[in-house]
Amino acid sequence: MYDIIVVGAGPAGLTAALYALRADKTVLVLEKSTFGGQITFSPQIENYPGYVKDDEGRIYNVIENQEIVNPVAMMQTLNNNKDWDKFVGSVWGELEVFENLTFKTSLSTDMAFWGERNWFPVSYLCYMVKTEKSRVEQTMNRGVKLLWENTLSYKRSIDKHNFAVLLGTSMERYDSKKVKGTALNLWAEDDHKAWIDFTNSASPGDQHSEGGATEHRMAIWCRILISKN
Fold first, then answer.
1. Dist. CA 77–CA 57, nearest whole Å
2. φ/ψ of residue 203, rounded to 5
3. How far is CA 53 from CA 21, 99, 129, 193, in A?
4. Strands (E), 26-160
């Protein structure tokens, strides 16, 4: 027995069914062809009745054969968590080796740690966008950037001529490490429990991991300036 029977699964019928369900009524929707009615053949859709859930609480699109993804339903499947820690610092020094010859050095560093966790519940957003197995993705990154610059300058005046020589080196180094893992079949579709170690990934291919990269750079330069008063 049903409290309400809706004939026709077009936008009006689906809306009536959704509001009846919100009022804790049992509802039966009868449709002879495709859920969504005339909306499934429309070239442009500006308003959606919303999304529904099946008996197991999985998110489904109200229009089973529609190619366009229901944005209201998609919002319920996006679960993203990010964290970021960053440390920066610098130090410099200057030394006059002897008269007119000066050495300068500076060292700066930028260290960052960041990670991301995304999980996706079982859902059917349209026949082309669906998640048949719940999934969680976790990423951990570490990046260290080091910049070291040195200059050696010499200035001298002879008669009416001023001479200046500037030599320098600049080194930039960036090291990064990345670890990413993916696992299927969450034990519970809950944000507090959606972690890789809380999955039932027993079958081959249910888990995946990948690594990171390192980069080095260095430059040496020289400049000579001559001026006359």
1. 12
2. -80, 150
3. 11, 81, 16, 21
4. 27-30, 51-53, 59-61, 79-98, 101-120, 123-126, 129-131, 135-158
90 exposure class (CB count in 10 Å sphere: 0-12, 13-18, 19+): exposed
Residues whose CB is less than 8 angstroms from the CB of residue 204 and which lie 6 or more positions away in sequence, other chains included: none
Contacts of 75 (CB under 8 A, 6+ apart): none
A 10 A CB-CB count for 66 gives 22
DSSP label of 62: S
Per-residue pLDDT tens over the stretch 142-162: 989 888 888 888 888 877 777
Alpha-helix residue ranges (DSSP H) falling in the chain: 11-22, 71-75
- Spell 31-61 as b/e; 16+ CB within 10 A means b: eeebbbbebbeeeeeeebbebbeeeeebbbb
Q: What is the pLDDT of residues 112-135, one digit of tens each?
A: 999 999 988 887 776 677 788 888
Nearest to 133 by CA among 187, 81, 79: 187
